[in-house]
């Protein structure tokens, strides 16, 4: 369809984010792309026809700072930063909202108030955006991210999901990193139930998401064997592994005596032949159990 439209509108371009709103008319093409056409190429009749099968992009964001303009150019137009631009490490905090904020300026001010320094906030739509943290500021100087979510949810009456990327050190590759972070954020919402997810949290799920259902089921049955339907036992092993194989900590989380926990762990080892007290065994069983939970 895009190529056919380009024959009618030679100026048509695809982008992850609208830009140059004064000269281009933008339409939503799919979940991750928008298309822009020079306004001078579109008649009133053309716009009505295009609007029947494309969603006009009408989002208007709050005024942006100089830093935000630079980052928008880097992330959406693949512009190269000037030599004077900060070469500090950086990371992206990608956020999604269940509904658009009624007062965008107030929402922006609420986010900025939670940081010790002003941070660029790059809006991608009325319900999605990215906070850019520059420089590896000690976590102790930030409000905990789950507290940030609690504050924003209580103030604006909406659910918020945060995905925290790892730190990056090559500003020249920021555009590529950003695109991958958006993909990772989608996977984090697909598998993780919490409001705050880090890259490290989803690494096992990145592997899982590359497999089809047949491959997943084969792997789960091959590793878990006859315990695959024993959800109580699998839950016990899951908590044990998630507690860094610390028997006392896991027993406390499960509200059971550590001897009872040890009995269940030994029972699992006996039934599967996999020693989950060793790193290699713990790793493959942990991933297999994560896959097993996705079947329900």
TrEMBL record:
SUPFAM superfamilies: Homeodomain-like. Residues 233-290 form the PucR C-terminal helix-turn-helix domain. It comes from the Bacteria. Signal peptide: none annotated. Gene3D superfamilies: PucR C-terminal helix-turn-helix domain. InterPro entries: CdaR-like_regulators, Homeodomain-like_sf, PucR_C-HTH_dom, PucR_C-HTH_sf. This is PucR C-terminal helix-turn-helix domain-containing protein.
